[in-house]
Amino acid sequence: MTTLSILIPTKNRSEYLDDILSSILKWERKDFEIIIQDNSDSNKTRNVVEKYLTDNRVKYYFSSEELSVIDNFEYAVNNSSGNIITAVGDDDGLLPAVMDISDWMLENAADAVLTDKADYVWPDLISKYNSGYNNSKLRLKKKICVEYKKIDPIEELRKVCNHGGTTMGLLPRIYYGLVKKDCLCKVQSLTGQFFPGPSPDMANAISLSLIVNNFYYLQYPAFIAGSSSKSTAGMGLKRKHVGSISEIKHLPKNTLSEWDELIPAFWSGPTIWAQSASCTIKKINPSYALNYNYLYARCYVFFPEKYKCIFDALKKGRGGFKSMITVLFWYIYNWKLRLDNLLPKIWRKFGKIDSTVIVVDEQPNISQAVKSLITHTKNYDLNKY
């Protein structure tokens, strides 16, 4: 029996994939599989994976046709055989503790578990804004807890909708979380897809929140969210996560034609997440609605150059003066959030350390970051509960 399927959809990022594979395959457990879903333009990824194929836990699938990121994820789920599914990027990391979490899920009839995560920035991510603060560092919260806390997914969905679909909050998901495959199959039976929106992470989170029953949160960093020069997270750190929808090749072909007219028509983190939330909700339960005014405010804060697109979407909502006042309120709120995020970086420049976070310097790659994270979590017994 395959307990856990670890999905790694990848394209043209073989240099990171090599590192995460070498890290995971050191695990002693045999009842998991790694699904590598490759849509690269060359044989580089295949050449990296080839040396690991003697290990029957590695399953490699290649598609030569140009795929959207959604299609690559869809294929990965279809090729999986585990009772439980998780997904990571090729520049991410995960701890062997995910196997203990999988065991707990099966023993306790849990549909999904969302864990905490640590953060790591690869040394190749050069940015004039963040390099000195982030590069080659592992960050994790000091507070760790091994008690599984039950979460109401619908209440979390309402919170996400109130924030305009710009955050995933504590929604269930396979990306940095674990979900029973049966739940993904229920989503597919309702919508025709495992990921019914243009951004797989948000589409997955929204759809699962409307499907799962027994959902838990674990404040334990079982995953490491990696940011590299080629990742969308890296693009965000370099302030390049913005563009024309029609020019973003990894999006599904119908993204622009199905775009919600109340969402500003440009590609960015907040707008593509909002669009994914909007179209997923419409396909499963249209009774939920996004707070578009929050979305407009966040876009004005982070993408002021797109003011015309934002205002055009706002006008279509016909909110009038009351809507403008609400946008102003959320605008101030988002500026506060942005300043709160900047403060730790400012403190660090003046030699002050954030007492809630552990920072581990000189981490050259994700496998070293995983070793460091294991060291910092070794005194926490996941089998306690």
UniProtKB/TrEMBL annotation:
Pfam families in alphabetical order: Glycos_transf_2 (PF00535)
Listed InterPro entries: Glyco_trans_2-like, Nucleotide-diphossugar_trans
Start and end residues of each Glycosyltransferase 2-like domain: 5-121
SUPFAM superfamilies the record matches: Nucleotide-diphospho-sugar transferases
Superkingdom of the source species: Bacteria
Gene Ontology MF term list: hexosyltransferase activity
Transmembrane stretches, start-end: none
Stated name of the protein: Glycosyltransferase 2-like domain-containing protein
Organism: Trabulsiella odontotermitis
